[in-house]
């Protein structure tokens, strides 16, 4: 029980989360004045996902998970999975973008939007936005960041410098996680532009990268990669055993997020009016065949025997 109750800490990120929640609630209140009840109710339900994602972020950085991550590599892997996968999933599903925008006073909001859309730097900003929002950019960046920070020299450097650890490592995990899941989860006003087949490929390929990373940390090596865990006072678990447990967590947790996501995507594709087969045809640039309705007899007419 002490592992759960003890070693909670205060992090300035708590203040950031509190400010974001206040702004989000202010935006919801402003939108409620101009919306129908059904839309207001829908926003409130989505906000629960958003707040759940923020709560997971807080658990990752202020709970005993963060404390024990300094001593145990496998706990650090749990922290990374929360920051990179589960918190971004909930935040994207919560679609906080319009409420946060409408928390800004009307005059200031209009000036900011005018500067972004019509200002001198607007062409560069729009080009940057298209690049960042490109599905392939999101997919490659997400996997590259995951591999990059597990390179021993970079991982050790982040552990030895808290600014690098928080503002570079964890921030890059979280930002690329948001961009990745925006390609898969509808998050109003953003809508995924990718086909279900692309989304399935993105999830499977990311899961494969996690498996390869996990195998590299366990099956393909006999040594501890990270010197920062080699001489931690009071830790009796060997650094290599610690690394193997961390690799197992990477391996197993890949199924925890990938399988549910695949099920949701496949069901969404099957329920789509255009059908899953049409998505496959578009992905391979094939001319789709005639729909099944062409071969069905008209209503009230019995087909010849």
Structure description:
By secondary structure, the protein is mainly α. It has one domain. The protein is 71% helix and 0% strand. It contains 14 helices and no strands. Helix 3 packs antiparallel against helix 5 and helix 9 packs antiparallel against helix 11 (162-182). It is globular and about 65 Å long.
The string of secondary-structure elements, in order, is HHHHHHHHHHHHHH
Report the radius of gyration as a whole number of Å. 23 Å
- Overall, the morphology is globular
Tally of strands: 0
Low-confidence stretches: none
**Can you tell me the number of structural domains?**
1
The major beta sheet can be summarized as: none
Q: In percent terms, what proportion of residues is strand?
A: under 5%
Helix content: over 70%
Number of helices: 14
Q: How would you classify the quaternary structure? A: single chain
Structural class: mainly alpha
Average pLDDT reading = 87
- N/C terminus separation: 73 Å
């Amino acid at each position: 029980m002490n592992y759960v109750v003890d070693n909670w800490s205060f992090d300035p990120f708590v203040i950031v989360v509190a400010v974001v929640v206040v702004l989000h609630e202010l935006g919801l209140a402003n939108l409620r004045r101009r919306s129908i009840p059904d839309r207001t109710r829908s926003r409130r339900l989505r906000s629960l996902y958003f707040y759940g994602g923020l709560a997971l972020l807080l658990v990752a950085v202020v709970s005993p998970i963060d404390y024990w991550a300094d001593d145990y590599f496998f706990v650090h892997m749990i922290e990374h999975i929360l920051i990179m996968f589960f918190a971004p999933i909930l935040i994207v599903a919560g679609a906080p973008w319009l409420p946060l925008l409408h928390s800004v006073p009307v005059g200031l909001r209009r000036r900011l939007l005018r500067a972004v859309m019509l200002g001198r730097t607007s062409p560069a900003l729009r080009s940057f936005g298209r690049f960042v929002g490109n599905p392939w950019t999101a997919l490659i960046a997400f996997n590259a960041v995951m591999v990059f920070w597990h390179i021993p020299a970079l991982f050790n450097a982040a552990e030895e410098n808290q600014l690098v650890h928080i503002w570079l490592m964890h921030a890059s995990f979280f930002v690329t996680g948001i961009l990745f899941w925006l390609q898969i989860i509808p998050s109003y006003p953003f809508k995924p532009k990718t086909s279900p087949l692309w989304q399935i490929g993105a999830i499977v390929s990311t899961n494969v990268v996690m498996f390869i990373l996990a195998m590299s940390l366990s099956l393909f090596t006999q040594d501890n990669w990270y010197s920062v865990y080699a001489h931690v006072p009071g830790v009796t678990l060997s650094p290599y055993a610690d690394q193997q447990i961390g690799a197992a967590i990477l391996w197993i947790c890949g199924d925890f997020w990938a399988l549910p996501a695949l099920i949701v995507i496949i069901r969404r594709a099957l329920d789509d009016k255009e059908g899953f087969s049409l998505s496959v045809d578009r992905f391979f640039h094939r001319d789709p065949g005639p729909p099944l309705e062409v071969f069905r007899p008209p209503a009230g007419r019995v087909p010849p025997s």
